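Note to self: keep these together.
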Amino acid sequence: MTGRGGGAEPPRSAFRREMRERVLAAARELAVEHGWQGVRLGELAARAEVSRPTVYKEFGDRAGIGKALIRRESDHFLAGIAEALDRRPDDMRAALAAAVDWTLAEAEANPLVRAMVRPTRGGRADDLLVFLTTRPDPVFSGARVLLGGWLARQLPEAPADAVREAVEVLVRLTVSHIVLPSGNADRSADRLAAAVLHIAGASR
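Structure:
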């Protein structure tokens, strides 16, 4: 394993990275199996083969693990969105629709997302969903930056405020469709793409 400078990664850094990955992988497994409210730090540490003090030192608390897990999943989604946008560089509506469609399809197939939106006892969604939808932590900042940059390059003459508003609508409505899916994902993706371009003032 090499570091950013091209040399070997220091052993301590490599251990920390691998330990974080084990903890987050174990947290994901347990959240899928039991829901986030059923994840216990003792069981999590045992499955990741680390001590509870190590987990606390690295992530701070249970909420810190939840946030890190959401960020880990978000990185995966951002990579897929970027790839979908790049596949249709000459058709903004098709590119945006493809990005939304990929996101909705991946969310439906993703066992962690399914566990998050699955009603728990009492009829409410899993506690992990809170980290995605209501916390002030900028979970969606990466999506806003990615989509905002792409849309600004596609529409260089569009007002910056219009681009920001369009991106905000796209991000929030896509999340709404993940939480409450519609019957026709393809149609929803195309309609969202059309709405975004209208808000941004696109003429094509």
